[in-house]
Amino acid sequence: MISPETSAALPPGTVTDTTRPPGTLGLGLLVALVVGSIIGSGIFGLPQNMAAGAGAGAIVIGWLITGIGMLMLARTYQMLSVRKPDLDNGVYAYARALSGEYVGFNSAWGYWVSAWIGNVGYLVAAFAALGYFYPAFGEGNTPAAIIGASVTLWIIHFLVLRGIQGAAALNAVVTLAKVVPLLLFIILVAMAFEVSTFRLDFWGSAKLGSVLDQVRSTMLVTVWVFIGIEGASVYSARARKREDVGRATVIGFLICLLLLMSVSLLSLGIFAQPELAALKNPSMAGVLEKAVGTWGAILIYIGLIVSVGGGFLAWTLLAAESLFTPASGGVMPVWLARQNDKGVPANAMWLTNAMVQAFLILTLVSKASYLALISLSTAMILIPYLFSAIYGLYVSRRAEGEKSAQKPGDTPVAALAAVYCLWLLYAAGLKYLLLSALLYAPGAALYLLAKKQRKERAFSGRERVILVLLLLLALLSAYLLATGRLSL
User: Fold this and answer.
1) Does the structure show a pLDDT above 60 at 130?
2) What is the domain range of residue 49?
3) Domain presence at residue 344
């Protein structure tokens, strides 16, 4: 929290805890923000991404684990939003309340990095889809695609700068538009579904490994398509009613779970696992093309372009907010807490989209694939999720927060959410955890700058230990990258 003395020294336009703008986002816009941030590009490649490493039986198990785990995480965010209404931007605030300022900063930093890397993946996916109509765009990482993606990036940037309320309303319209082709896909594929195809080699071939290995292979994919479940929590400070934050989280989760499971499982009744795994992404296009003909593929490519546009807009909002609130709380440089005359965290927006632009250029040089980008984005967000779940367990066991919001089932819900997050870290594997450390470590410089601006001590004894461990992991990751033993 910013002290009165520090607040007085902040530049004009900085929002502090006592000058927070009034909430303007109602339940409908918050639900749209959750659905819009979850449903982006991931669902369109979901059939192939899931089938690439698992048979139908393992995919069903993977969805059961993900459905229960993500529901527990959604319920944890819902519980914390009403029991701790004073904590805004939950991904950051819950980690800070649990383990101090530097841990809170890292949670916000990891979430922010995950958001803008995910946006790079969105732009690559959108122009890969346009490559179906215009071959010059290729797989989304050709010079023509990068130029087109850059123009799109800055158009949306200046659109959002005109106001959060307007951008959120536009996101709601786009979210509705992109759900329509998904519903059409589900209806048409269900009509062509063949049970015999679905049951063929149900537990996968020997080359896919054990059922456990197959289930593990689905985890990063299912987490990627669910990233955004915390969207309403991140925007809690701008909610018109506090209880709407939790409601929007659960409603958005249930809508997305039904859509994602339907797309994934119904596709296994059109193509057998090896055929589905061999499809070019977006694999939904290949599935619908077999079910209804060429027009089905065209519908999916158009739907993907619309969907990615909406997902990019939602994540642009979330990325900027994930810098703005910590800056208002004193753990990021004060200039990131500055808003323009429309109430938009403009400096946070500029920094976010500058990083997206830089990574787009890097994508052109390295030819980084969409799947590599989303895997890295997913790994970055696992730690913030874990901190939220552990804090939920801490609050429920100590019976903290609003008494009227306390329920007997809160503790087992938060415990299951924490176990699920630990399972995700195991499923991610060492490669992406090391790459994550390489991206977490540079954040310490921004944290030091924030503390220097406020003339505050940067690290406690325990935080120094965390910093040293993080730097050692980052150095190991850099060495492995330099020697070719680790790659994106």
Assistant:
1) yes
2) 4-434
3) yes
Interval 355-391: pLDDT, tens: 999 988 887 777 555 666 667 777 788 888 999 999 9
For the chain, give the mean pLDDT.
Answer: 84
Report the candidate in 42, 40, 39 with the shortest Cα–Cα distance to residue 375: 42
Asked if residue 357 is part of any domain, the answer here is: yes
C-beta separation of 342 from 255 below 8 A: no
pTM equals 0.81
CA distance 449 to 454: 9
What does R_g of the chain's alpha carbons equal in angstroms? Answer: 22
List the CATH number of the domain containing 300.
1.20.1740.10
Count structural domains, the chain: 1
Residues 6+ apart with CB under 8 A from 9: none
**Cα end-to-end distance, the chain, whole Å:** 38
Maximum CA pair distance of the chain? 71
CB 351 within 8 Å of CB 323: yes
Within-domain flag for 453:
no
- What is the average pLDDT across 211-215? 90
Whole-number Å distance between alpha carbons of 198 and 266: 8
209 part of a folded domain = yes
H or E segment to which residue 70 belongs: helix 56-83
